[in-house]
Amino acid sequence: MSNIAVLGLGAMGGRIARNLIHAGHPLTVWNRSPAAAAALIELGATIAPSPNVAAQGADIVLSMVTDDAASRAVWLDPEVGAVRGIQAGAIAIECSTLTVTWTQTLAAAIEHRGAKFLDAPVVGSRPQADARALIYLVGGSAETLAEARSVLNSAGGAALHHVGSVGHGMAMKLAVNALFGVQVAALAELLGVLGKSGISTACAMDCLGELPVLSPATLAAGKLMVLQHHAPLFPIDLVEKDLRYVMASAQAIAALTPLSDAAQTLYEQAIAQGYGENNITGIVQLFIPA
Fold it and tell me: Which of 52, 69, 176, 238 is disulfide-compatible with 85, CB 3.0–4.6 A?
């Protein structure tokens, strides 16, 4: 079995690490807060004091962190960054949701060390990670993906889509998240309009749920809005970050994003009103108070 390192043990990274342990892979983990590794150590993982040490001797190094800044610190910190420890021929896999520009910069730094790189952000949240039903959107060479495929499957990947070259997996993931974010914001807005027209949220969703105008994911979000149930699966803080990253990545190639811009403003307003840790469905509170 491949020796694997996982950097970042948040809601998704911890679950990916657990899947790899259950699949029998020798695993080394690192997290900014070591306490998050306690349960994984009990399952047999080894904890490393730094990303650099975690990467040493690993055949594959996966990262799952919050944003560009965290990714930069984990990989390229001049003293403890994983790029200093990764061995030639190893595969670095960035599973976080990041800007395309940063992803391409990171790939160049890793490849300069003689290692290989894939961007492989995931579609799915905590329930899908637990059920090993994640979808990986992969950018990079087909040959490198072939080498890493079994590990990504072991990490909870039920499906792997090779989108194209480095950065294309990240571009597709940002598109997926932006499309979902725009749809959920639009639904929340219209439920507010319908509510002020005298149609209850429950009645509105019963009707909309019978019509072919909602995606399955948006329909599920609408049902949570009816219940005002906003336990975090895809927190508003991250939705807003991803929409900003869509805009930044689009600006780099002179593409227009007026709908993403408008949705980002709404999620930013939700954060300002204290809803940042709510699930994406919490955006409805801008239109229908809980």
Answer: 52
Q: Do 200 and 144 belong together in one domain?
A: no
Categorize the per-residue pLDDT at 161 as very low, low, confident or very high, splitting at 50, 70 and 90: very high
Q: Are 225 and 281 in contact (CB under 8 A)?
A: yes
Final residue before a domain boundary, out of 116, 147, 166: 166
CA gap 220, 117 in Å, rounded = 35
The residue behind tokens 């600006």 is 251
pLDDT surpassing 80 at residue 1: no
Give the structural domain span for 237. 171-286
User: pLDDT tens digits, residue range 87-109?
Assistant: 999 999 999 999 999 999 999 99
Domain match, 31 and 137 both: yes
- Show which of 143, 166, 189 is a domain's final residue: 166
Q: Average pLDDT for residues 64-69, to the nearest whole number?
A: 97
User: DSSP string spanning the chain?
Assistant: ---EEEE--STTHHHHHHHHHHTT--EEEE-SSGGGGHHHHHTT-EE-SSHHHHHTT-SEEEE--SSHHHHHHHHH-TTT-GGGTPPTT-EEEE-S---HHHHHHHHHHHHHTT-EEEE--EE--HHHHHTT-EEEEEES-HHHHHHHHHHHHHTTEEEEEEEESTTHHHHHHHHHHHHHHHHHHHHHHHHHHHHHTT--HHHHHHHHTTSTTS-HHHHHHHHHHHHT----SSBHHHHHHHHHHHHHHHHTTT---HHHHHHHHHHHHHHHTT-TTSBGGGGGGGTS--
Number of domains in the chain: 2
The CATH code of the domain that includes 120 is 3.40.50.720
User: Quick check: pTM over 0.85?
Assistant: yes
Range 58-69 average pLDDT: 97
